Amino acid sequence: MEFTDLNSDFQPFQRAYTKDIMKIQEIERRVREIESQLKEYNIQFESDITPSILKNRERQTTIDAITAAVNKAYSELKSQVTAEKDLKKQLSERQLCIEAQGDSIRVLQQIDHFLAWRNEAQAALEHRQHQVAHHHVDNAVPLLKVSQGLHVYNVGFKYIAGVVTTAQRVSFERQVFLTSRGNSLVQFEEQRHDRIVFVVFFLGNQLQRSLKRLCQFMNIFVCYESDNDMSREALLKQAVNEKMEDKRAHSATKKLLKELMRETASELQGWKITLLQEKGIRMTLNKFRLKSRNNLLLAEGWCPTQSKEQIHSILETIVRNKGVTSPILTDQPFKGKPPTHFEENELLTAFQAIVDTYGVPRYKEFNPAIPTIVTFPFLFGVMYGDMFHGSCLLLFALSLLVIGKMVDANNSKSETFTSLYHARYVLLFMGAFAVYCGVIYNDCMSIMVNGWNGSQWQHGYTDDGYAVMVQRNVYSVGIDPAWSGVDNQLSFANSLKMKLSVIIGVTQMTFGLLLKLSNHIQEHDYISIFFEFIPQLIFMVCFFGYMVFLIFYKWCIDWTTSNLPDTPSLITVLIKMFLSPGTVDSEVQIFANKDFQALIQVIFLLLLVFSIPAMLCIKPCILRSRMSKQHGHLNGDDEKYGDRTEVQMPTLDVQDYQKMDDASLHHHHSHHEGGAHEMKDMEYEHSKSESHPPQPEASHGHDESFGDIVIHQLIHTIEYVLGTISNTASYLRLWALSLAHAELSEVFFDKTLRTTLESNSIVMNVVSVAAFLMFTCGVLLIMDVLECFLHALRLHWVEFQSKFFYADGQAFRPFSFAKLLEME
């Protein structure tokens, strides 16, 4: 059921259920935050919602319950995530410690190697200090006042050990030299890793503090110092134990966090489905009108006639044993344009989509999708006619049917496959008609097949000894294969396909006019039938119908025994029909009797000429007469209705509205006496609507002044006359596309396979086959299919549907959770 918005004059924040919708949106935001957290931690979860899942899932909980569940999970997960992030930060720091401890192990293991240099380093540093003190070294500054002797200050020999990266090595060595003013000695291990163990030997506590600050500034980890209280063996054992403990803590924390997130992830899809359902219900409730102190909801909408009983049964089931008043389902008068609804199946859906892309049919207008099932693939087949290529397209469509039964194509994540699957029946019919037209053209990759009853042309000789082709009989189906390879094959094919294009075009446009007649009969618009449809049909038949008749008539003439003076050109016949009416010379004579031909051509020409002013003038004049009569009637009611000059044709009378309302009110009072207050409100609403008589629709859907009617009719007359001529020429694209397809097939076959058939080179044969398949698949099976599809689409939308299709209707959009999912 499609609901009508009864609160269109209210702002969104004034509607009753807007607060609930905002609350649901806030919960959805929290669910999205949970999803982002799960994605951040690479937790697999299923949150995608498909129409089938949404359709088959019942409403399991209320908005309060889902709010409590989501808020609880959100709070728990948020606290856990916060704790996890803090722990992650600690783990990161511990990981650095682990790395440092690993480096410490290496340092402690390497110290013995470095300490082998201790005595030499100590002697070198003391000797250098003594030289600096006695100014034996230029530009050097002593670190200590040695005037009283170095031994007085009891300067101890010290060292620190740590780890630097390869990138830090040079700068660290330079900074140590500058900080100690050359009074230090740095040793590095052999470079086998990105992190290198070092030892710095120096003298004195002051220099030790400076070097430690330097290491802290350069983010260099110091693992061991010479005055450390613990032994190297104890430090080594402690580093190994801390590393193992950190590994166990990290593993346990990670396992606990994943279990918590997996538990939350299992609920996500259910939450999203419930929230989507609840939001959709409240968005629909916002269209209802609250009555009688907010204890009655009034809803209006559209539903298919056959669904009324089902809707009534659903309403009764919902309120049963709930202690509330039973709902009332009544028919209401039309308000605005009724939506258009068609019962669809798998076959009709894709063709209906082709029509709806151009426009939706009006209510009770003829649905163009019905003839489109046949005419659209047929026009495609006329342009694409080829037995081999059509068979490829047909097999592709059949494979889609088979694969679609094996897998759930509607829920496939591949949009391309889903789109092709939805169009499977269109592709199936396109392939079938392409094969059919290929049989008629006797075209299989530009090769004519000598099948059926065999070629009916054979070589013969005249009495003078000249070799000629003699036709024995008629080839059973399609074009005789004897035309293959002859000099005039292209001329013959062009002439045949061009005439077929014109015949198909005129036939389809005439069929469109007949569909227009059915619409006028449905609308009871007899003025348009007699003074619009009939003149248009006369114009079509007297010119283009006559041309199609001449095509068939000329085909039926046996020119070997004909007594006509010449073979007339049909184009010349039609031109002379307009330029020289009443006269037929031997150049354009096609009937045995010239006078008969001249007579019927004059009659057709007169009917054609007089049909144009009939289309243009008669209908506006009749409508003008009606307007004059109504104008006198409206003048007596100026105060009530206003002074208007309009064409009005009522659809339903006000009394009919009142009868339907009275019947519904009587039904309510007889069955639900306790609902008196509610019905009083409804009576008041109906009385308000009845105080303003409904504005009846005009004969063409809306009120128009006489000037507007004349301009409208003038535009349509010019459009029809010129459009009929241009549309007929537009159908020649059937011939052009068919010719292009045949020529491309011939070129690809001749330049690839045919040139290497007599070659003994395997390489050349493989290359030619690969080139043939590439051109065939890329150009003929993909690009040409799309091209013919688009041209067939244009012929339907413009040339065919413009003859009868209004395309200004409104589609029936019933409430559906699947449509809410599309909106999301």
Feature tags:
62% helix; alpha+beta; 824 residues; two-stranded antiparallel sheet; V-type_ATPase_116kDa_su_euka; flat; V-ATPase_116kDa_su; 25 helices; Alpha-Beta Plaits
Please give the order of strands in the largest beta sheet.
3-4-2-5
Tell me the number of helical segments per DSSP (H or I, 4 or more residues long).
25
Radius of gyration, CA atoms, in whole angstroms: 46 Å
How much of the sequence lies in strands comes to 5-15%
- What is the count of β-strands? 10
Give the oligomeric state: single chain
The percentage helix is 55-70%
Coarse structural class? alpha+beta
Shape: flat
Query: Major sheet: size, sense and barrel closure?
Result: 4 strands, antiparallel
Mean pLDDT: 80
Distance between the termini: 20 Å
Function: Essential component of the vacuolar proton pump (V-ATPase), a multimeric enzyme that catalyzes the translocation of protons across the membranes. Required for assembly and activity of the V-ATPase.
Keywords: Hydrogen ion transport, Ion transport, Membrane, Transmembrane, Transmembrane helix, Transport
Subcellular location: Membrane
Organism: Reticulomyxa filosa
